Automatic annotation (TrEMBL):
<dbReference type="Pfam" id="PF08498">
    <property type="entry name" value="Sterol_MT_C"/>
</dbReference>
<dbReference type="InterPro" id="IPR013216">
    <property type="entry name" value="Methyltransf_11"/>
</dbReference>
<keyword id="KW-0443">Lipid metabolism</keyword>
<comment type="similarity">
    <text>Belongs to the class I-like SAM-binding methyltransferase superfamily. Erg6/SMT family.</text>
</comment>
<dbReference type="InterPro" id="IPR029063">
    <property type="entry name" value="SAM-dependent_MTases_sf"/>
</dbReference>
<dbReference type="GO" id="GO:0005783">
    <property type="term" value="C:endoplasmic reticulum"/>
</dbReference>
<keyword id="KW-0489">Methyltransferase</keyword>
<keyword id="KW-0444">Lipid biosynthesis</keyword>
<protein>
    <recommendedName>
        <fullName>Methyltransferase</fullName>
        <ecNumber>2.1.1.-</ecNumber>
    </recommendedName>
</protein>
<keyword id="KW-0756">Sterol biosynthesis</keyword>
<dbReference type="InterPro" id="IPR030384">
    <property type="entry name" value="MeTrfase_SMT"/>
</dbReference>
<feature type="domain" description="SAM-dependent methyltransferase Erg6/SMT-type">
    <location>
        <begin position="54"/>
        <end position="341"/>
    </location>
</feature>
<keyword id="KW-0753">Steroid metabolism</keyword>
<keyword id="KW-0949">S-adenosyl-L-methionine</keyword>
<dbReference type="GO" id="GO:0032259">
    <property type="term" value="P:methylation"/>
</dbReference>
<keyword id="KW-1207">Sterol metabolism</keyword>
<dbReference type="GO" id="GO:0016126">
    <property type="term" value="P:sterol biosynthetic process"/>
</dbReference>
Length: 344
C-alpha cells in the first residue's frame, strides 16, 4: 500500500483543489446527485467537472484504504484481497492476448496500479488515459518509484475525445472506469477508433443487473448512493452496455457477469459483518477509525474543511455497494471481450 499514514492521507485530501476551496467543491459535487435531489441530465452535461471533483476529493481515501488499484475483484476461497486484485488484472491481460512489445491503452487509469501490474506481467508498454491532474501527478511518482517510467506513462485527456490517431493501439482495456462516461456509445466509439483492426478491447463495467427494479424505492436509493459515492452520471444495465459496444462497431467475443459465480462475494471487503486484519481499513471498524481520524485532522487544521463530508459520502457509497451486491442488483465486474473487425 503506497500511502500508509494519517498524515499522508491528510496531505492528499482535496487533490489539486485549493485547500480553502475543498468545502465548496464538496457542496457543488453533492448537488449533482440524486441523493441530494440532483438530476441525471446535469450529471451527464457536467460530467468532466463532476468526475474531476470526485477524484480530487476521493483519491487519497482510495489509496489509503485500497492501495494503488481502485477496483474490486472476483475472488477465490483462501485468496487475499491483494492476490485477487492482481489476478483480476492478469486475467484481463490474458484475455487480450498481450505479448511483449505491444502498445496498450488503459482507459481511465486512476493512479496506475493496474497499468503497472499489467505492463510488468505482460512485458508491454501501457499508456494510461486520465483527465485528472492530481491522479496523473501521483501516478507518475508511483511509476518512478516502481522503476517503470520507461514502459508506463500517462496522458491527460477526456476519453470521449482521445488525442490519438486512428488505429494506434494493439489492445485497449478499461477497469471500472468507462462507467463515468455520459454516453457509452460515444466512449466505445473512441476506443474503437484508436484500436488497430482485428485487435481487442476488454472491460470490467459497473452495471445494474436484471434484478434491479426501477420502481422499487429501496433499489432506487441504493443506486443513488452508489452514484453519489463514486462520481457516476448514471448506472447502466448489462444489456445497455452490451448493446452500446455493438452499436460502436465491435464484435462480441464473449461476455459474463463475473460476480455471478465468484466463490467469495466481491463486496466482502466492505461488508460490516466481516473483520479482517489484512484489509482492516476497509472493514466497518477500520472505516469508523478513518472517519474519526479525518474528523480530528480537519478539526486541528491538517485536513481541509469538508474532508469529513467526503469520508461520509464514501461511507454511504460503501453501504450502497454492499446492499446492492447482497440484493444482486449491482455488479462492478460485468466483463466483455470485443474485437474490432479487420475490415469495416
Amino acid at each position: 500500500m503506497s500511502k500508509a499514514g494519517a498524515l499522508d492521507l491528510a496531505s492528499g485530501l482535496g487533490g489539486k483543489i485549493n485547500k480553502a476551496e475543498v468545502k465548496s467543491a464538496v457542496d457543488e459535487y453533492e448537488k449533482y446527485h440524486g441523493y441530494y435531489g440532483g438530476k441525471e441530465e446535469a450529471r451527464k452535461s457536467n460530467y468532466t467537472d463532476m468526475v474531476n471533483k470526485y477524484y480530487d476529493l476521493a483519491t487519497s481515501f482510495y489509496e489509503y484504504g485500497w492501495g494503488e488499484s481502485f477496483h474490486f475483484a472476483h475472488r477465490w476461497s483462501g485468496e487475499s484481497l491483494r492476490e485477487s486484485i492482481k489476478r483480476h488484472e492478469h486475467f484481463l491481460a490474458l484475455q487480450l492476448g498481450l505479448k511483449p512489445g505491444m502498445k496498450v491503452l488503459d482507459v481511465g487509469c486512476g493512479i496506475g496500479g493496474p497499468l503497472r501490474e499489467i505492463s510488468r506481467f505482460s512485458s508491454t508498454s501501457v499508456i494510461g488515459l486520465n483527465n485528472n491532474d492530481y491522479q496523473i501527478t501521483r501516478g507518475k511518482e508511483l511509476n518512478r518509484l516502481a522503476g517503470v517510467s520507461g514502459t508506463c506513462d500517462f496522458i491527460k485527456a477526456d476519453f470521449m475525445k482521445m488525442p490519438f490517431d486512428d488505429n494506434t493501439f494493439d489492445a485497449v482495456y478499461a477497469i471500472e472506469a468507462t462507467c463515468h462516461a455520459p454516453d457509452p456509445v460515444g466512449c466505445y466509439k473512441e476506443i474503437y477508433r484508436v484500436l488497430k483492426p482485428g485487435q481487442c478491447f476488454a472491460v470490467y463495467e459497473w452495471c445494474i443487473t436484471d434484478h434491479y427494479d426501477p420502481n422499487n424505492a429501496t433499489h432506487k436509493r441504493i443506486k443513488d448512493e452508489i452514484e453519489l459515492g463514486n462520481g457516476l452520471p448514471d448506472i447502466r444495465s448489462t444489456r445497455q452496455c452490451l448493446q452500446a459496444v455493438k452499436d460502436a462497431g465491435f464484435e462480441v467475443v464473449w461476455d459474463k457477469d463475473l460476480a455471478e459465480d465468484s466463490p467469495l462475494p466481491w463486496y466482502l471487503p466492505l461488508d460490516p459483518s466481516r473483520f479482517s486484519l489484512s484489509s482492516f481499513r476497509l472493514t466497518s471498524v477500520g472505516r469508523m477509525v478513518t472517519r474519526t481520524m479525518v474528523k480530528a485532522l480537519e478539526y486541528i487544521g491538517l485536513a481541509p474543511q469538508g474532508s469529513e463530508r467526503v469520508s461520509n459520502f464514501l461511507e454511504k457509497a460503501a453501504e450502497g455497494l454492499v446492499e446492492g451486491g447482497k440484493k444482486e442488483i449491482f455488479t462492478p465486474m460485468y466483463f466483455f471481450l470485443v474485437r474490432k473487425p479487420l475490415t469495416e
